[in-house]
Design a protein that fits this description.
25 strands; alpha+beta; Adenine-n6-DNA-methyltransferase TaqI, Chain A, domain 2; 4-stranded antiparallel β-sheet; 5-stranded mixed β-sheet; single chain
Length: about 400
């Protein structure tokens, strides 16, 4: 429990001078006990609570409803209510606390729902306070007991038992309004990124279908494209894993890459390293800078993902290494083309009951190959869009980091 004394935040708006009060959460919130007994809300109005997105419609968020046979005992969640999820997340092992900013709906009995006391608290302020993982974890840790199955042992009323520092309502409102503006800016940047990604997808469709063509430096048409199997334009192989039981094979200075780093990106660092002995005494191979890596298998949607090596590295056996013949195909052109056909490549793996790709399957993938000159123009065109996407992503990250820094300084 935090010390019972007033506090003044590091950063605040100049019109406010008083110290923040150390109040019980039960002074700010009260348990909402309304149930969906009249079945006003159906299974299509069940809500989920996301650490990143907040309170959202379950079907829209997860693609389906996970509601039980009956929802008549589900908790009703009005707009402006606070919801506590009694389920652990990686960053929040004791659950998360979020404000419902969207539509009214219902949540399962595994959640706790609270009303905001308008005389002492402003809902968006409470939401911003608990948007910091450190605040949420610090508050819930002393209260929550975990069961054998990692489930939360805490009743809804006891969640309100501890204290947080809060200012008067006008300062709560001022702080929350400031972060609302900041959140809108982040949302606009995310929308911009989404639109750029959609534009890139549309452009790639036109480029690879040859609906959009380039001309050479003299204004003449480039030669016709040819359809080639990858084995005719690149060398395809895979790596291996040195024995884990032999420490002399690990923690050396040779980068070793796994499929966890493949995400349609340029790999600029390695998470693990092997020794020269590990390389020599295993099926691991050293691949040159510019090698394309494709995940042949892995959890979830990993299979079929691509990356380009930005340095010499070895890989595990789940990575296919595709080394292009630069006289025939530009590495970036091949990367963009295969990335665009990701879904089709994943479907190739559904053979023999195993959802795995293989070097043999990858070798037989056919792609349209223009002349090197046209490939370079295509790559340059797509890279310009990628640069805009990357700049926007950097803006999002910097704004989010700035917001987090302000939250840490503006909340006691």
């Amino acid at each position: 429990m935090e010390k019972l004394q007033g506090k003044i935040p590091q950063v605040r708006f100049p019109e406010f001078k008083d110290a923040w009060e150390h109040k019980k959460l039960s002074d700010l919130l009260s348990e909402a006990k309304k149930r969906n007994e009249d079945l006003k809300y159906g299974k299509d109005e069940v809500l989920s609570v996301s650490g990143e997105l907040g309170i959202v419609n379950q079907i829209e968020h997860l693609g389906r409803s996970y509601a039980g046979v009956s929802v008549h005992q589900y908790h009703v969640v009005e707009v402006g209510d606070i919801v506590y999820t009694k389920s652990p997340l990686k960053a929040n092992p004791f659950g998360i606390i979020k404000l419902n900013k969207g539509k009214a709906g219902i949540v399962s009995t595994l959640y706790a729902v609270y009303k905001v006391n308008s005389k002492t608290a402003y809902g968006p302020f409470i939401d911003n306070y608990f948007s910091l993982d450190a605040n949420t974890n610090r508050y819930l840790r002393p209260l929550v007991k975990k069961g054998a199955k990692n489930d939360m042992k805490i009743n809804n009323a006891y969640v309100l038992h501890d204290r947080i520092f809060v200012p008067i309502i006008p300062e709560q409102t001022r702080i929350a309004s400031f972060f609302t503006v900041l959140d809108k800016k982040i949302a606009q940047l995310k929308q911009k990124k989404t639109l750029l990604e959609q534009y890139k997808k549309g452009v790639m469709q036109k480029l690879f279908s040859q609906e959009l063509r380039f001309k050479d430096e003299n204004g003449k048409e480039f030669p016709k494209w040819s359809l080639k199997e990858i084995e005719n334009i690149a060398n395809v192989t895979s790596g291996g894993t040195p024995e884990r039981t032999k420490p002399e094979y690990w923690n050396g200075n040779i980068p070793w890459i796994t499929t966890s780093l493949l995400n349609f990106n340029v790999i600029k660092f390695a998470e693990e390293y092997i020794t020269k002995e590990g390389l020599q005494n295993s099926s691991a191979k050293l691949f040159p800078k510019g090698t394309l890596l494709m995940a042949m298998y892995g959890q979830g949607v990993t299979r079929g993902k691509l990356a380009i090596l930005d340095f010499e590295a070895t890989t595990n056996q789940a990575c296919a290494a595709i080394i292009p013949d630069e006289k025939i195909v530009n590495q970036n052109y091949l990367f963009y083309n295969l990335s665009f056909h990701y879904d089709e490549i994943r479907n190739l793996s559904n053979t023999g009951g195993q959802e795995n790709l293989s070097a043999g399957l990858i070798k037989k993938i056919k792609i349209p190959v223009p002349s090197i000159g046209e490939q370079k123009k295509i790559v340059l065109f797509i890279k310009v869009i990628d640069e805009k996407i990357n700049r926007t992503e950097n803006q999002i990250q910097k704004t989010q980091e700035w917001k987090k820094g302000l939250l840490q300084q503006m909340f006691c």
